[in-house]
Amino acid sequence: MKITNEIKNINVKDPIIMETQQLDITKLSPTDRKTLMQELAAEEKANKQKARSDKAAYKELSTEFLINNIDPLIDRQNNMVELVDSVFKNFNDVLKLKTDIYGLDKLEQESHTVTHPDGSCSITIGHNITISFDGTETAGIQKIMNYITALSGDEQDENSVKLTKAVTHLLKPNIKTGMLNPAKIIQLNQMRSDFNSPEFDEGMDIIIEAQNRTKGSSYVSGYKFVEVGENRTKKVEFRFTV
């Protein structure tokens, strides 16, 4: 009962709301106004000085970071170049024998893969290829589109309609370059059997012959399953490009 009485005797006062009044500079005396302006100018000057100091410190720290880290990265890159060159040289004997056995043109094949018989590891060496077109591909595109236009006339054939949409999409040029997408041309070339058409095949032949294939950077990629515990392995993949 004592606690209850104490609670009843508590008086709750209304909260005091603190009002923030804005300074009316017009009501200041000339001396006070001058003092205020000097304080504001000093504060602005200090803020600008701090900003300059922070920028200078940032540039100094950035340069220090660059100096401390650039050389190890250059060394790593040089080591990677030497490693990739070494792998390519070591593959020469394998490539020569492969060419002799299978009659392959080693200059035309863009990559070669060697995989262990048990699948535990694999190495692929090759060159990244840039594909462009010489302008004659437009004749091939026109042949294919003529064929597709005739094919799409039969709206009752659902399969033909789907194929028409697919071909139209794959022949759509890149918005930025205005050129055909090489990856989509590969997809389109795989559809020859779907059409079984001499006109379609002729158009595809023209497009493919219009390609300019330029070898770019060299790369070595692959994987190996390594032991990470009892009866446990982990597939470690790698790719080096120079």
The proportion of residues forming helix, as a percent range, comes to 40-55%
Count of helix runs: 8
**Intertermini distance:** 87 Å
Total number of distinct structural domains: 3
Q: Low-confidence parts lasting 5 or more residues at pLDDT below 50? A: none
Order of helices and strands: HHHEEHHHHHEE
The biggest beta sheet is recorded as:
4 strands, antiparallel
Structural class of the helix and strand makeup?
A: alpha+beta
Shape: extended
Oligomerization state: single chain
> How many beta-strand elements?
4
Cα gyration radius (Å)? 37 Å
Strand order, largest beta sheet: 1-2-3-4
Overall mean pLDDT score? Answer: 86
Instruction: Provide the β-strand percentage band.
Output: 15-25%
Q: In short, what is this structure?
A:
This protein is an alpha+beta fold and 242 residues long.
